[in-house]
Design goal:
CATH architecture of chain C: Orthogonal Bundle
Chains: A mainly alpha (about 350), B alpha/beta (about 350), C mainly alpha (about 300)
CATH topology of chain C: ABC transporter involved in vitamin B12 uptake, BtuC
CATH class of chain C: Mainly Alpha
Structural class of chain C: mainly alpha
Number of helices of chain B: 10
Oligomer: heterotrimer
Largest interface: B-C, 46 and 45 residues
Strand content of chain B: 15-25%
Radius of gyration of chain C: 20 Å
Helix content of chain B: 25-40%
Largest sheet of chain C: none
Number of strands of chain C: 0
Mean pLDDT of chain C: 89
CATH architecture of the largest domain in chain B: 3-Layer(aba) Sandwich
Strand content of chain C: under 5%
CATH topology of the largest domain in chain B: Rossmann fold
Helix content of chain C: over 70%
Chain lengths: ~350, ~350, ~300
């Protein structure tokens, strides 16, 4: 017998949903075995990483706050990825978005209020979109590969951040530590429930997936993205402008990353220092794939990833797993989801191998 | 990617070896539960390792009157907030957050738990239930400067810094002034690498300093990279935060040791006595939070004697390196003859003394 | 400025350059075969820890270098299986490899933290590396000569050998290479494994030569610079060498400027330079159709034969 792959005419809906779930389950199983092998209570570790944050209600707010930026960035990336436009510079756009919001806040000085906060978030969206517009321009003008240019620009963005918080925007009362001044009272995002850390951005992260889902389903642009992504040649014949798709895909994903950055700044951290870029932009790429590039999928996947973050921290105190293992888990999940992608597009058949028959197989 | 105050030297060692249950279970309800938030793993042989030694000292000194728990590898971002809150929810009445980057997070959680006392290391924001504490590392740096000034043949010393924050500026100034007491022409070349941890850059910067004439290089970054480079070149340097002689047996002259035990014991005792109050504490040699590792074999008798004198002077209060006259880089008189700089001015210092050659 | 000064500066530049050159050579070959592997940082870290671990266990740095190559290659094969066998997305898989390699190296490194080995320095007689002029020729770790040797060797392989021609053909047009009867997958497996091995050796330059110890994330982002370097070089081996030294000189200049008391530009500008220049170079390369011919046409695209 040998394995034969048959291309499906339509992607399998069952596999589309089943494989991410299976990926998470297989990762958990492997985790149990591997942890036991290296001398850590495997079952306890995996339960702590994947379930404890869901069972302990006081951990929900941590999961929500962690998931919000992941979901928002992943939504934008999923649009681009569907159109075969690969923005891997979301981390940089996230940083620039936060910096633009900080710039507005600094410009207003001590003045606060809803208008200022709205302007900050708007500046964040614009900033992220503008940073993503550079690869879009390079791609459409000079046919520069956007994967490479968006990645390079991320590292430039990190240096811009380092320069601003260590130089012109350094908190004058901060004893020379490279960090911006904390936001004033009226310049932060409102908290949804008094006494919690759940900020307005969490609500945005819950609503946006449905907005995206509706738009992708109903709008011409959504159709265009799907057509360009699945059949570029047909799209060209259909009169869809490839350049326009590139521009929109990058600007939307950059804008979303900027939105996430500005809300993380205005809702959670309230200042920017060198620790601000914590990898959300890169992790969101995993989220978008784990969510199968589907807006609702991104919402669920963002929560799953956030759970592993929060759970990974919990497992540190309970079973003392090293910090790095959370990363291994995330990479494993992504490996499985990418590997199982083939099941969505192909059907696996076992066929008798004609030329040579090996006994026992 | 550089992150400030990521004092992570050799993350990871011992993290697995630690028993899965930390701290003893509470036997009596009146036991004081103390929590620690650590930046690196407790086995990092550096910043966190030293804080964990302090935690162990509390357990050893106060026995079953206290119970301690800790969390390692806590990032200096928003994720520190739930970690600190967790400790409070688990019943800790005294919580030490042991890195600068937890400053605002500590203040925030302290606002939620008014009955819990917090202690933030190296920060400057306090509240009714938040104290701050730090150690006068620059006193140790004076001992290093003394040895360097005495032993350097070129009279040009190197200083590998991270960021121009007060702790580093104090270190540079203390080192330079001490070296100049031994050799009035001593100069210090300063390179800031914009990171607490970047071994290849630390090594390259050390080579650069050596090439520009430095024969002794001291580091204010967290990896032993500089020491290893110095060892290869047959030159000398100092360990940072912990005895690093195992990384460079010949090059390692001595090291500043961070000893937090005395402070942690004092604060826990204050809680037990009901006398805890919000303060700002800055201890040094005298109180035992700064100590010097055993001198390496290449430290000359003269240098050792001079270094011992500095240590003794700090311990009995007769010596302070920040005694005037002190001139700034551009030659202006900053501290008048005989005047001693106040702690409050030291804590916010942002200028280098004469003899420091730096880019900013 | 005496000769000693210049020589010492050259030695620093060589130290800064060698790891990114090694990883760059590997990635160039991978990309020439039409595959974009963004996992360089992960493979370098895997190489750094495997090289260090093998050296600690065997006491032999040569074995360590081989161990680093094997470690890097094994990590890259994980990527290869997913990308080649299962047609997974190269960008996402490469990123996953970096996350995986970072985590795995930290985990493996737990029991090697705090240990040291003798630095893997010049193997020439001490008399040769004592003289300042000769030192600039003989004063380096064997890994440096290996890297310099691999530049013409790899260039010759790509340009003049049949295998190299096939590799380039696969990167240029996988479908027609496939239709002539070449195994696209086999060629790419080999290229990816080579890339992993070179990144691994580049990684062990940190843990065996620059700072003979293991520290988590000790490559400090050099893998991304290596990726930029390949693009900056326009996929040409000669330019890769020149570009690597150009980046190395930039990094050294920043340190020399600071140590000499100059501050004419913020240091962040220096740090961002390699990336900015790469984007600019990329724009030039891509906009000029002919020069852009060196960019493999199939870069990053999945291989989907109709049969």
């Amino acid at each position: 017998m040998r394995i034969k792959l048959e291309k499906r005419r339509e992607p399998s809906m069952l596999m589309l949903v089943a494989t991410p779930v299976a990926s998470v389950l297989v990762t958990m199983l492997i985790g149990i075995v591997v942890f036991d092998l290296i001398g850590i209570k495997g079952f306890r570790a995996v339960v702590d990483i994947f379930l404890s944050p869901l069972l302990a209600s006081y951990k929900w707010q941590d999961v929500a706050v962690k998931a919000a930026p992941l979901v928002i960035i992943a939504l934008g990336l999923a649009v681009g990825n569907r159109a075969q436009v690969w923005n891997i510079g979301a981390e940089g756009q996230y940083v620039i978005g936060a910096l633009c919001a900080a710039g507005v806040a600094i410009g207003f000085g001590t003045i606060g209020g809803p208008v200022v906060v709205v302007l900050m978030v708007a500046a964040g969206i614009l900033g992220g979109a503008a940073w993503a517009a550079i690869p879009a321009w390079l791609r459409t003008r000079f046919s520069v590969n956007e994967i490479l240019s968006s990645l390079m620009l991320t590292y430039v963005a990190l240096q811009v951040l380092s320069y601003l918080v260590g130089g012109p925007w350094k908190d004058p009362n901060g004893r020379n530590f490279p960090a911006s001044a904390p936001l004033g009272d009226g310049q932060t995002l409102p908290v949804l429930f008094a006494g919690s850390t759940v900020h307005l951005g969490v609500a945005v992260a819950i609503v946006l997936p449905f907005v995206f889902w509706y738009l992708m389903k109903r709008s011409v642009f959504g159709f265009q993205v799907r057509v360009v992504g699945s059949a570029p040649n047909a799209a060209r014949h259909g009169g869809f402008d490839g350049k326009q798709t590139i521009w929109l895909a990058l600007i939307i994903s950059g804008g979303m990353a900027g939105l996430a950055g500005s809300m993380e700044f205005a809702g959670v951290l309230h200042k920017i220092d060198l620790g601000f870029p914590s990898g959300y932009g890169f992790t969101a790429i995993i989220v978008s794939f784990l969510g199968r590039l589907n807006p609702i999928g991104c919402l669920i996947a963002g929560i799953v990833l956030a759970v592993t973050y929060v759970g990974g921290q919990m497992a540190q105190t309970t079973v003392h797993i090293p910090n790095s293992t959370a990363g291994i888990f995330q990479a494993m999940m992504l490996f499985f989801i990418l590997a199982s992608d083939i099941l969505v597009r192909y059907r696996i058949r076992l066929v008798p191998s004609a030329p040579q028959l090996v006994a026992g197989e | 990617m550089t992150k400030i105050s990521r004092r992570t030297l050799m993350k990871g060692a011992g993290a697995i070896a630690t028993a899965s249950v930390i701290g003893k279970p509470a036997l009596a309800a009146d036991k004081l539960k103390i929590g620690f938030i650590f930046l690196g793993p407790i086995g990092d042989y550096g910043w966190t390792w030293a804080h964990n030694k302090g935690r162990e000292a509390v357990e050893a000194a106060l026995g079953d009157k206290v119970e301690t728990i800790y969390v390692e590898n806590v990032a200096e971002d928003a994720s520190a907030i739930p970690q600190i809150r967790d400790l409070a929810q688990q019943g800790c009445k005294l919580i030490f957050t042991t890195s600068y980057g937890y400053m605002d997070q500590t203040i925030q959680v302290a606002g939620e738990f008014k009955d819990v006392k917090f202690e933030h290391c190296t920060g400057f924001k306090r509240a009714d239930n938040v104290s701050t504490y730090n150690s006068k590392f620059h006193e140790g740096r004076a001992v290093l400067g003394t040895i360097a000034g005495k032993q350097s043949k070129s009279g040009t010393l190197g200083y590998l810094g991270s960021f121009k924050v007060p702790e580093v500026v104090l270190g540079v100034n203390s080192f330079t002034l001490s070296a100049q007491r031994q050799n009035k022409d001593a100069k210090v070349k300063l390179v800031m690498i914009d990171s607490w941890f970047d071994p290849p850059k630390e090594a390259a910067a050390t080579e650069t300093l050596i090439n520009l004439g430095c024969d002794i290089v001291t580091t204010h970054t967290d990896s032993p990279a500089a020491l290893q480079t110095l060892e290869q070149k047959g030159l000398h340097g100092f360990g940072q935060g912990a005895d690093m002689s195992s990384f460079a047996p010949n090059a390692h002259l001595t090291a500043i040791l961070d000893i937090w035990g005395p402070y942690y014991i004092a604060r826990a005792q204050a809680m037990l006595d009901g006398k805890w109050a919000s303060t700002d504490t800055w201890w040094g040699f005298k109180e035992g939070t700064v100590q010097i590792a055993p001198y390496g074999k290449d430290v000359t008798k003269d240098a050792a004697a001079a270094a011992d004198k500095v240590q003794a002077g700090y311990k009995d209060g007769s010596f302070n390196i920040f005694t005037g006259p002190i001139y700034a880089q551009d030659g202006t008189l900053k501290v008048k003859d005989g005047e001693v700089m106040k702690d409050a001015d030291l804590a916010t210092i942002d200028w280098f003394v004469k003899g420091v050659e730096s880019a900013s | 400025m005496g000769a000693d000064f210049i020589i010492a500066a050259i030695i620093t530049v060589v130290g800064l350059t060698t790891p990114i050159l090694l990883a760059g050579i590997g990635e160039l070959v991978v990309e020439k075969s039409g595959v974009l592997n963004l996992g360089v940082e992960g493979m370098m870290l895997t190489g750094a820890i495997s090289g260090f671990a093998v050296t600690v266990i065997t006491g032999n740095p040569w074995a360590g270098v081989i161990g680093a190559a094997i470690g890097g290659a094994l990590a890259s094969l994980l990527f290869a299986v997913l990308v080649l066998q299962l047609n997974s997305n190269q960008v996402a898989t490469g990123l996953a490899l970096t996350i995986f390699g970072t985590g795995l190296s930290s985990l493996l490194g737990l029991s090697f933290t705090g240990r040291i080995v003798a630095p893997f320095l010049s193997v020439f007689p001490a008399s040769l590396s004592a003289d300042p002029i000769l030192k600039v020729i003989f004063g380096y770790s064997p890994i440096v000569y290996f890297a310099l040797l691999m530049v013409p060797l790899t260039a010759w392989f790509l340009k003049s050998t049949r295998a190299g021609l096939i590799l380039r053909a696969v990167g240029e047009n996988d479908l027609s290479a496939h239709s002539i009867g070449y195994s696209v997958r086999r060629v790419r497996y080999a290229a990816i494994a080579f890339g992993g091995a070179m990144a691994g050796i580049g990684g062990c330059y940190f843990s065996l030569v620059i700072t003979p110890m293991w520290a988590e994330k000790m490559t400090a982002g050099r893998g991304w610079i290596a990726l930029a370097l390949v693009v900056f070089a326009g996929w040409r081996m000669g330019r890769l060498l020149a570009g690597a030294y150009f980046f190395g000189i930039l990094m050294a200049l920043e340190l020399y400027a600071k140590a000499s008391g100059f501050s004419f530009l913020p240091s962040q500008f220096w740090a961002a330079m390699p990336y900015i220049m790469t984007v600019v170079a990329l724009s030039f390369i891509s906009s000029r159709g002919t020069a852009g011919a060196n960019a493999p046409a199939c870069l990053g695209k999945p291989f989907l034969p109709s049969t």
